[in-house]
Amino acid sequence: xxxxxxxxxxxxxxxxxxxxxxxxxxxxxxxxxxxxxxxxxxxxxxxxxxxxxxxxxxxxxxxxxxxxxxxxxxxxxxxxxxxxxxxxxxxxxxxxxxxxxxxxxxxxxxxxxxxxxxxxxxxxxxxxxxxxxxxxxxxxxxxxxxxxxxxxxxxxxxxxxxxxxxxxxxxxxxxxxxxxxxxxxxxxxxxxxxxxxxxxxxxxxxxxxxxxxxxxxxxxxxxxxxxxxxxxxxxxxxxxxxxxxxxxxxxxxxxxxxxxxxxxxxxxxxxxxxxxxxxxxxxxxxxxxxxxxxxxxxxxxxxxxxxxxxxxxxxxxxxxx
Length: 321
Ligand code: ZN
Known about the structure:
about 325 residues, 14 helices
């Protein structure tokens, strides 16, 4: 059965890099294995950044190597510059996501670059990829596309213009991220309608374009609502993090990305096939908890339990062939 929506688990990257403690490599690989067993076939597993800046990701190459042993898994990594992209490609990552910012304040704080300098770096990355690693898929990820904790509101036109520039520069896919959890469903609908008009939709099977999936944080509890709004206007790929791992440095006590377990429950309950087994997904919380004892694990569905009579889409439509 073909999945109606595609989920990319980003907890091993977005979640773990926001947690102050470092998860041991063996625990990371056990967790990835459990996520794969639950049916996840796309994961962002590591960041290729200097270990002195992000010791949580010092084992990035090792984690990518392990992820490549999991059958059928699309292995994605994040890298902020050419050096990182080269390291990710050497480790075997099939997709590299390169973060850029929609606000100058965030670009300066996060990348120590102006937006123009980050675009210039992206052009160098594309040139290198075209010559040295033509099979590598490059995704440009626009951070703080829905609002910035430093700048405040981010004009939609700024995001669309940057997305257009990055697509022209050679990005295979351009994604927008609600890094700060400031988005609302009306804004999400407007943003994706504009992006699809400008770049097309990467998930449009008839006429694939370049707009990538939704990446939202649940900082203010609107993660599911924003994913649903994105789905309603045609988005079919979603990033999510098991247990909402991560948090937000500007909002103490807030969870990180939209919770994978809740998102799978929502889509499956709507009759939209995710390819993910909810029971096995719940079981994958155990290796995560074991690797990060004491770390808060979020999620409404895991806390409340799967409701009586809930039927996953695989059961509704018979076993897959
Ligand atoms: Zn994020």
